[in-house]
Automatic annotation (TrEMBL):
Source organism of this protein record: Corynebacterium gerontici
Protein's cellular compartments: Cytoplasm
UniProtKB keywords: ATP-binding, Cytoplasm, DNA damage, DNA recombination, DNA repair, DNA-binding, Nucleotide-binding, SOS response
All copies of domain RecA family profile, residue ranges: 85-244, 249-322
Gene: recA
One Gene Ontology MF term: ATP binding
GO CC, alphabetical: cytosol
Protein name: Protein RecA
Amino acid sequence: MSAVLRLSAACREPLWQQLRLTKVENIQLNREEERTKEVAPKKSTKAKATDADSRQKALDSALAMIEKDFGKGAVMRLGDDNRPPIKAISSGNTAIDVALGVGGFPRGRIVEIYGPESSGKTTVALHAIASAQRDGGIAAFIDAEHALDPEYARKLGVDTDALLVSQPDTGEQALEIADMLVRSGAIDIIVIDSVAALTPKAEIEGDMGDSHVGLQARLMSQALRKMTGALYNSGTTAIFINQLREKIGVMFGSPETTTGGKALKFYASVRCDVRRIQTLKDGQDAIGNRTKLKVVKNKVSPPFKIAEFDIMYGEGISRESSIIDLAVDNGIVKKSGSWFTYEGEQLGQGKEKVRLNLKENQDLANEIETKILKKLGVGEYANAEDDLSDEPIDMVPNVDFDDES
């Protein structure tokens, strides 16, 4: 009965008084909520700060234990300034070094060079060996194809007396020898020529026509798993030369594929596709090939760069020819008609004469090459300031073409 009386009394209050009371109550509730929000963050901020400090201490402790057990540098932050830069072994050719982006083939990584027959794959690898030896390095060549020509290697600049060569009987033996050499820590570069010739022992001991599905792919996968870490720790560059095959029944896209399964494609930091694009002739006689190298995969620099260079028969890759091409493209050497000019001095008329001039004057060739690498920021000049002028220079050599005498 009392509840009914209170309800009737409330109903007798004017409507405006009821609305006013409701508004006052809402204002009070909002003020209480704001005071609660102002007080709450202070406690949560302190809690978060304490939590962050404890997590940082735990991380520092874990890093100290890892460094103690596994050595300094086992774990590092990607943004650390003291992180070692990527070192490289020069390919011996300026155009290839520029295409690779780091001044050559990266140390401690796997490199795959593939292409059609007689395209220059082994020549590129032998030039890299010669470059490593000139810098005082030790090189090894696993000749699985049993086709290495020592005389040709010497013409390319390889010190064959110091070169370690193995001609293994089986694929397992070849990869085991390569792994032992890498783990010794004394090898700078090792070349395996070629993946297609790494024949499993079971296939050699079997009969002709026997099916050995996936044997070579499993062999390569196991070997690369073992070698990857050892290559990085020793700073050895491993170059695998590979051949091309064609897949049957491919309607769209390229039917070409490489041998040895897919493991090498994944483990390789750099993959280079080498193709012969033109035959160089002196009159009717073929004197060399114009070759194109495309970097189809690159984990150490932007990929898909292309290098074009000349491979002269009996001489190898023409370093001077690549220097001329890159110097003209970058405005270091000026060309007007058939004349080439460097810093106001004539280098010669016609590319072949300039090439022979640079071949005889190696100091000048080295000077021009250094300017190319500085301008493009390649290798050791990656962070160097470009001190070359962009001002236009008179491209016409000091030759009086109107002289009638």
